[in-house]
Amino acid sequence: MGLAGDTTMVAPAEVERMARKLPRHSRCPPGMNVKLAALLSVVIALSACAPAASLGGDVGLARADVARASADPGDAIRAGAAVDAFGLDLYRAIAAGQTNLVFSPASITLALAMARAGARGDTALEMDAVMHGAAADDHAGWLNALDQLLATRSGTFQDDSGKDVTVTLRIANAPFAQQGMPLEKPYLEALAERFGGGLRLVDYKTQTEQARALINGWVDAQTEHRIPELLVPGVLTPATRLALVNAIYLKAPWETPFPVDATTDGTFTRADGSTVQVPFMATTTSLRYASGSGWRAVEIPYVGGSLAMTVIVPDDLVAFESTLSADSFVAITGALSDTEVALALPKFGIETKTDLASTLAALGMPSAFDDRADFSGITTAEKLEISDVIHQANIDVDEKGTEAAAATAVVMRATAMRPSR
User: Residues near 9 by Cβ (< 8 Å), separated by ≥ 6?
Assistant: First the structure.
C-alpha cells in the first residue's frame, strides 16, 4: 500500500486498524496477511432491541414498563474512549500468532454490557475493570448515549460526484432468556433504560435446537445474511439460561470512490517478509494523513462525512502491536491533517470467528466464567455463569466502499450452586 505525503511507496507488513466502521468472508487474496481490528470506538451504538414479532414464531417478551433514559452527548464520548481502550487490550491479547484477523470491540462490549447489568460483587468489579467502565452501574448512560448519537449515521447522502448513495449502520441487541425463569425487576428496568428493550423468551431446556435456530435467524437477518450461523450445534445446551446477543451491520460507500480502472495487481509484503501479488485500488486526492516514528496513517471518509476508515501501516508490526494503547491511538488519530495523498489500498475480505471466554478471563474477569460468578442481579432462582462468548466478524473492502458485519453472543448457563443473597 502506498501512503504518500513524501510520495514514498510502502509495501506494508500488514494493513492495521479500522475505526468508524465495522467488520466479511475470509476471502483475502491467496497468501495475503491482513490484521484488522475493527475498533468501533466513536462509532459504536446501542440500538433498541427489535420487537419480538420480528424474530418470527411465537416468542414471548419480558420487559419493564420503563422509558429509555435520556442521552448526554458527553457520555457518548466517554463510552467511545472506554471501548477503544478495551478493544486495544483485546487486540494485544488475540493478535499474537494470528495472520488475518478482524473483530469488533463494539459488538463484544454491547453483548457483555447486557450481562454486566446483572453482575454483582467481584464479578461486577472485574467486568468493569476489563471493559474500562463502559457498562458500569455509575456509567449507566454511556452506551445509551452512544446509541442515540449514532442513530443519525444512517441515511442518504451525496458523494463527491453528486450521486445519492445510502449509508446503513445498524446496531441491535436481543437478549434471549429461558421462559419461566424468574427475572429480577431491576434487571428488566436496566435493559429498558440502557438498551431500550427487553428479553425474548425461549425454551433452552426442552427445545435447545429450536432456540439456536431462532437466535441464528435473528443474527442472519440483522447482518443481511453475512453471519448465518453464529452459534454452532453444542454451544447451547439444556443448561443454557441466557444468550445475550448483539449484531452490527455496516454498508458505507466511500465519499470519493476509487476509480475501477485504476485497480491493478501490485506487490504486497506479508508479515514474514515474503510477497504476493494482489489487486490494489489507487487514487490521488486530499485525505487526512500523518506519519510518526514507525508508522504512517491515513483516514478515508465514507459518504456523509460522519464515518471513516483509518488505516495505520507500521514499519514493524510486532513492535507496533506491543505498544499500541488507547493513548497512542489517540495520538495517531489526533495527528491526522489534510494532505495530498497517493494512496494504494488492497481490496480484501476477511472473516474471523472465536470464543473469547478464556481471553476475557485472562484479561482480568475470571470469576464470570466459573462457580464464583455472581449474576444474582439477573435472577436468584439459579446461579448463573458465562459459558461462552462467541464472536464473529467479517468485512469486504472494494472500490465502492465497505460492507461488514459483526455479532457476539454471551451465553450463560445454570450451575449446580445457588447464589447467596
Answer: 2, 342, 344
